Amino acid sequence: MIWLNVLHMNPVWSLVVLVAASLEYLMPELSRPGVAFSVTVAPEFRCSVRHANIVRHYRRGILVSAFTGLMVAFGAAGPLNGWAGPAAFCAQYVIFLLAFLLARRVTMPNRIAAPDTREADLSRREPPAVLAVLVIAPLLTMAAVLFWTYSNWQQIPDPYPIHWGFDGQPDLWVERTPMHVYGVLGLLGGLAALLAFFGYGFLFWARRNVGAQHTRYSFPAIWIALFLGAEYFVAASATLPLGLDIRPLELIVLAILAASSLYLIVIGPVGGQAARRPDDQTPDDAWKFGIFYFNPQDAALFVEKRFGLGWTVNFGQTRAWILIAMAVAPLGVGFAFVMSIAS
Amino acid sequence: MKAALAAVLAVLMVALSWSGAWAEDRAEAAKEATAAAESWLKLVDSGKFNGSWLEASIYFRNVTTKQQWKQQVSVWRTALGPVVTRKLRTVQYLTTMPGAPDGEYVLIQYDTSFAHKKSAVEIVVPMMDADGKWRVSEYSIK
Amino acid sequence: MGTSKKIIKIDLGSSVPVYRQIADQIRAMLVAREFNPGERLPTVRRVAVDLGVNHNTVAEAYRNLAEEGWLSLERGRGAMVVSRSTPAPNPRTRNAFSQRLRNLIAQVRAAGISPQVIRSEFEEVATALFGREGKGSGR
Predict the structure, then answer these.
(1) How many CA atoms lie within 13 A of B47 on its CB side?
(2) What is the number of domains present in chain A?
């Protein structure tokens, strides 16, 4: 097992657990007025005592999930070593899911039929094509890095750096083999491709609800900016082994990501309440477990999440599976690399 | 808004054109430490256990006597047999090691095949000694 | 033009096929000159995604409007609004219109809507669609 400094990594994972739990805590307020825990309800139900009780119990579950996550992150560091962090994240997420499913079940008796009406605004223009270029550009730079690596193999550092500390200095190297070098590029490339898929999908393939979930235009823009920012960060990281100091760029991107996240959290509760339509124009029976949207009859590749921020994939579209597989394939190569250097 | 965007772009350009530190210092250190580890391993492989103790770091020699070291490594190497192949797996730069004083360490793992054990992992940890040289402070086989 | 919303609404539970609902509403907008000749309508894909229906449904609506002479369909570029010359009035169309109007009025009267309300709705819709055009003509 790669020896990971517990004191170094676990605060990071603990922060991730806390941020996730905080967002999940806020989530009941982020839904449209006519939706509660992914169930279509009368808007009056959202103001009722019954709903307040359900939310209270749900939030208790979230607090338990956060506590459990932190316990695993630090308490299991011994037996699990470097995997304690990811285990903590998984533990927190599983308990959140249970809390959500229970709240959804309890909300079900208050369900009303989802409206059959749909609206579209024909005056809205498509996003400018330059945004498509912005989304795809990092993938092209990564392809360039891949090509350069292949053509200049001897110039790749040996051993090959694969991890950097917070001081921007590399602190983990592996033997310079094709599996290692292309494995890292596969990992980063797959991640960037997935982020690009989401970024492009949110821009061009997502349902634009009239009087959207967050009526301020800025919400979709910030949400997409988050994904693009992450994509640029990942693509920039692919140049690290070549010796460039990209810390200033990474700091700027991180600052933008942090500011965007804070902004989303601030406008979230306001946005959900201000939605023009109480429902989200999707049929109830297309939502599996209240989380997965499966509707082959719906041309949208992305629809508004019923519970949470942003959009979710329409798994009823074959295109969705193909595009995700194309993005995940390089990740598989990266995963093989990670397994080859971990015991 | 446009002024803010222009300012951000300007900062970006300056940051990118900043020649800044190529991340060579740490990489150089890792290379030197790896070289020290490999020449030390040559001593152990050729049975020069005394020599390997003498070439180890001050910390190593304070914690383990020459006799203890010879005894321990003889038992290991007799049981495992000579080295057949040794391949570098990972090199990790650290500033702390459990149970050891703070300092500069490089934790190196090798995938090693011995005559009597097909697959094992050797862990060699050179540290930066007071005289600025990298010397092995820890050695173990998994 | 431009900044005002052009919202179409469909009812998936209605007995009227969805493609016809879409075509009817876009036609109403075209008649009311909310789209000018030379303007492009959103693509079939975009309307289908925003309404949450199948591509073919919207494509059928666009095809119908193209056959009536409202749109020009270009593969890969979407639908463009074209100048449409008003066809010669057809007595059969007029008779069918009168009959449908009578039926519609009877339905809403039976549902309890008063004649005053019906009349004011007619005036409102006519004004919105035609403005001053067509007042006093067509008899």
Answers:
(1) 3
(2) 2
